[in-house]
Amino acid sequence: MRAAVLRSGTVETRVIGDPVPGPGQLLVRSLACGICASDLHFMDHPEAGAEDDSGMSTYDQDVDIVMGHEYCAEVVGYGPGTERRIPLGTRVSSLPVLTTPGGRKIIGQNPESPGGFGEYFLLTEAAARTVVSDLPSEVVCVADAIAVGWSAAARARVTTRESALVVGCGAIGLSVIAHLRHLGRGPVMAVDFMASRRETALAMGADIVIDPAEASPYQAWRDLARAPAEPAAEGVGAAGLPGCVVFECVGVPGVLDSIIRGCERGTRIFSVGGPPEGERLHTLTAKRKGLNIQFGGGPLPAHWDEAFEAVCSGTLDVTPMLGRTVGLDDVPAALDAARDADGPVRIVVVPG
């Protein structure tokens, strides 16, 4: 098959062997696959894979790896021991985890679990979800990105006496905004340096957008929080203000620490970004303010299913996030373009 192959820090498109489905696995043809910031983190920071003692993510620079974990695909074959409950030709997607004899592997982040930047890859039959929708595959594939922020917003359990501040309006931040809007939680304030991302945040449901180069988002939040509201007991923060819930969705060193130093006392912080090179935090400041910081983790399976259904049904319109589509030959250049913070939220690879 043809694939965009990562090896020794470089991606090139060439012919490699077709994957062979093992027990309980499906062979699928990639129809569309989004380029995610975590693809860039994976290829740029091999040390992060080396530190992953779970074995789920492994970057061996001396072997071929086919990235791509936000996919819509078509079933074209069955491995041994499969139930064959999904007919050939059916469009599917799944949580990007492949069950192998050596354990669970993240699809697109291991040599033995190739991803959607190739013509074919493998899925665990039990995890596959049928696409019940007429929407294009380029739209459906965005569901996995939506699931990450969807899960973070669901786990945060923002109350009616808390106001959300979403820092970073990439795919994850936008999906946090969309699910908070779906839950009826607001007002939602979104923060990003790029005007195009702020416009997309408004399209996805943000009430207020802030350019941090022009105004402090924390002061803007305080001004919003001081607006008259019905009194309530739950979620009340310092000085009688509503509680603040900040979602860090950037993944660049210094951002989480700037939130710690700038936010209100008693703030709850959900760090979904997580720079692979790590971060230095003012923990004494966090202690003095009584901050509660929860670090990411992937989406819960139930939340992934909810996000997938919302996208496939059209309940959640993700088209404001979509940029251009590219073929396999253009993947190396598209990966570079995805580094542009002012570029489209999602560039989608269509291998065919």
From TrEMBL:
Residues 171-294 form the Alcohol dehydrogenase-like C-terminal domain. InterPro entries: ADH-like_C (IPR013149), ADH-like_N (IPR013154), GroES-like_sf (IPR011032), NAD(P)-bd_dom_sf (IPR036291). This is Alcohol dehydrogenase. One of its GO terms (molecular function) is oxidoreductase activity. Keywords: Oxidoreductase. It comes from Streptomyces fuscichromogenes. It holds the Pfam family ADH_N. It comes from the Bacteria. Residues 22-126 form the Alcohol dehydrogenase-like N-terminal domain.
